TrEMBL record:
Name assigned to this protein: Glutamine--fructose-6-phosphate aminotransferase [isomerizing]
Domain (SIS): residue spans on this chain: 46-186, 219-360
Catalytic activity: D-fructose 6-phosphate + L-glutamine = D-glucosamine 6-phosphate + L-glutamate
Organism in which the protein naturally occurs: Rubrivirga marina
The protein's Enzyme Commission number: 2.6.1.16
Gene Ontology molecular-function annotations: carbohydrate derivative binding; glutamine-fructose-6-phosphate transaminase (isomerizing) activity
Amino acid sequence: EEIAKGGYDHFMLKEIMEQPESVANAMRGRVRPGEGQIKLGGLDDVLPQLTAAERIVICACGTSWHAGLVGEYLIERLARVNVEVEYASEFRYRNPVLDPERDVVVVISQSGETADTLAAVRQAQGAGVLAIGLVNAVGSTIARETDAGVYLHAGPEIGVASTKAFTAQVAVLAQIAILLGHERGVLSDEDFETHVEALSKIPEQIQTVLDGAELIERMARDYRYASNFLYLGRGVNYPVALEGALKLKEISYIHAEGYPAAEMKHGPIALIDQFMPTVFIATRDATYDKIISNVEEVVARGGTVIAITDEGNEGLDELAEYVVEVPKTLDAFEPLLTVVPLQLLSYHIAVMRGCNVDQPRNLAKSVTVE
Ligand code: G6P
């Protein structure tokens, strides 16, 4: 086991550190700057149907569901297709309205064995709807039963808390969004190329984030005794807030909630005091000014702010206790970078609290029961 951990104390840390490589693997041979195309071989046969779909329904559970939410933003923004994201467990029992002529179902699963996600595949197929799988485990049940799919190629993920599978899922969803955007004529050749180039830089940019990991360890030391955390983000970084909160809950047993930042005033703001850190994912995109007002509201109530932002932004220095910078990429791809410090934060807090990081209590890597 020590050898398998590759010199790291835990599989989770190894898997976090591996992300420059695993994300590169999720794009290898597929994203080729300068060639004017993205090649997803597993979708070749269904590409005309996927391109013509009027609605894409994404079904998944847990972290994979969070990746699906990022996918919704990406596909709607870059390809202008209507996307719904469903918890597989809800979808399957709701007798969903499905139309084989206009809908395509996309399921996302690291293990390829999650019972509810598999049931969603069967539900779609039962209604005559094309089911596409984005799966990590090669040869798994979902990979076999779906009509077409894309493997994540993230390599085996052992830590129960999913990290590198999430970034690989988002990387594949980004490729699908760009590909569909191009095929549907939403992205010009030039826009297509800009996105392909930005995506291909992500692995080295993840490495830059990892190189700054020491700051996050210091942060973890300061906040390890907190009993509640709030994570806030907007737009494409809202699912990152959910994922950051989930990571912390899963492995450190600290209660954490993720919210879209503007929803703060409809409830969570009542919880804010000096004992509850609020983590903002506040990059300089279209809603940056709005999120700064949210940060100010928290500070005004005596709350402590940790901010994840993009390189060179000094606007949060006065407001936040800690500011973690990630390299600048296109807004759409920010989750691939902003999630990494949150993975590290939960990892270090869990280690400092003496938790069993790779095998958290009550959780299973793959949930094959309903
Ligand atoms: C479990 C795991 C999570 C995972 C979820 C969905 O809860 O502990 O890490 O996100 O199942 O699993 P899947 O294999 O379908 O992605």
